[in-house]
From TrEMBL:
<dbReference type="InterPro" id="IPR035985">
    <property type="entry name" value="Ubiquitin-activating_enz"/>
</dbReference>
<protein>
    <recommendedName>
        <fullName>NEDD8-activating enzyme E1 regulatory subunit</fullName>
    </recommendedName>
</protein>
<keyword id="KW-0833">Ubl conjugation pathway</keyword>
<comment type="similarity">
    <text>Belongs to the ubiquitin-activating E1 family. ULA1 subfamily.</text>
</comment>
<dbReference type="GO" id="GO:0008641">
    <property type="term" value="F:ubiquitin-like modifier activating enzyme activity"/>
</dbReference>
<comment type="pathway">
    <text>Protein modification; protein neddylation.</text>
</comment>
Amino acid sequence: MHMMGSYLRPGKRKGNLRDLIRAHMLNVDEDNYKEAVESSYKVSVTPGISDEIRQIIDDSSSEVNFSSSDFWVLVASLKEFIANEGNGELPLEGTIPDMTSLTEYYVSLQKIYQAKAESDCLAIEHRVKSILRRIGRDPDSISRACIKTFCKNTRKLKVCRYRSMEEEFSSPVLSEVKKYFADEDSCFAMNFYVLLRAVDRLAANYSRLPGIFDSEIGEDVPRLKEAAVSVLSDMGLKGSSLSEDLIAEVCRFAGAEIHPVAAFIGGVASQEVIKLVTKQFVPLNGTFIFNGIDLKSQVLAL
């Protein structure tokens, strides 16, 4: 332990530990030593909590009350755990990666990690129950299975806060709008975003989509252009306009629903629903625009 500490002291060359491992290799083909060398950088990683997780546990919502969601009760318990049993660290996940090892050694190491993870989970569970009692709620209202899942994923927590469509439409963030229009990759998506809103506006005024009658396409193009200019003005871009070709193409399209594209969008939507229902994985935050011509998609967080 003393020797390992000397090799990891600040200022020591990062390759020292790798040299130490290689020095004990009997031949160059020993897989366990190769894996140890490849993963040696992990030993010198500074322990602690990421800035993103720190922001979550320091969020004002972690000061819980009777109406707080289960998630924030769990975050409050995590905050207490870090300050006490965790000694400044998050609870252990309890898993170890695959590695070349004798089975009995691997199982023994795995049991050590699992035992510590179980101990941490129990500490979190006690704190959850204590907090629930403190805020006047049933101490068993958050299941052990939920607590266990939370403990396994504390390093991957993410809080998503969304703007409603009403906020997006009535209070546009001009800096974000300008950023997307200025970016080459996002500009095309922004054009279609504005046109889709313009189509909705025109449909509300005329009770039909533009271009569905061949005889009125000539009239619909300037109408849609006017609606697009109105949308741009609402977004803070007064005096701006879109490409005449794009406007004419949207009118020519006449609100058609191409089956493969509709099926793809349906798949995207169903995937997002699963994320929200299971509260696992990170949902999209913004408006999803799919460009079937170039097979590109873009999420606009407006």
